[in-house]
Amino acid sequence: MIKKHLLTCSVILVLALISKLNIYGTTITETVAKPAKLSHRTSKFIFIKSTTAAYNFADEALPVNDARVTKKLNKSLSQHSFKSVQSTLLHRKAEVLFPIIEPILKFYGIPDDFKYIPLVESGLKSGTSSKGASGLWQFMAGTARTYGLKVGHGVDERQNVRKSTIAACKYIKELYAEFNSWTLAAAAYNNGSIKMERAINKQNEDNYFRMSLNRETGSYIYKLIAMKAIIEQPKKFGYKDYIVIPPTTQLLAFN
């Protein structure tokens, strides 16, 4: 009788242990099956994705999944912030130049974002570069003559905002016809169409943001996007106060 009672207790004990093991096993399984919480790093990446997606050039968006693109964009935005530039000259230039440039771009069917090229090309400086490029659109003498500008014999129409903008529009339209992309057209404006075409063929890639280009051209579109950002949203990038040039001054500045 005692033996039977002990046997019964043993069976109950074993069943209890098995049941307990199953409970723990289920708990472990459930824990593993639960989706892991996003780490701080993952959350940061998602934030960068949405930030990158907010920027574009001529309505051609940047890839949102590319960490290299994000890094280059953030670097350019930082370089063009008031903290780095410490000047409102770019905004004052824009206030003077854009009323002249914008209608010409529109007339030739060029996206409005190309108005930022003169700010990137000439920046805070003026005059002729060490390579011989001159004017707001930084034309070389030969290219300027090709697109109808007079250069030489005491005349340099590269310095004339209206005439040089018309010449730039003609050139940009040709570049777009060749590359079928405003982004590539802008990059070719900086690097030349022959070098750009060579790079596209060599890399078998026609997305500017995924191409490997020289340092200047590789950062060129990012500079244009950053310039667009600080001009359109000055306070976001630290430009809290800047002088507004009266319209009369604007008309006299670049005749």
UniProtKB/TrEMBL annotation:
SUPFAM superfamilies, per database record: Lysozyme-like
Domain called Transglycosylase SLT: residue spans: 105-207
Entry-linked CDD domains: MltD-like
Name of this chain's protein: Lytic transglycosylase domain-containing protein
Position of the signal peptide: none
InterPro entries: Lysozyme-like_dom_sf, Transglycosylase_SLT_dom_1
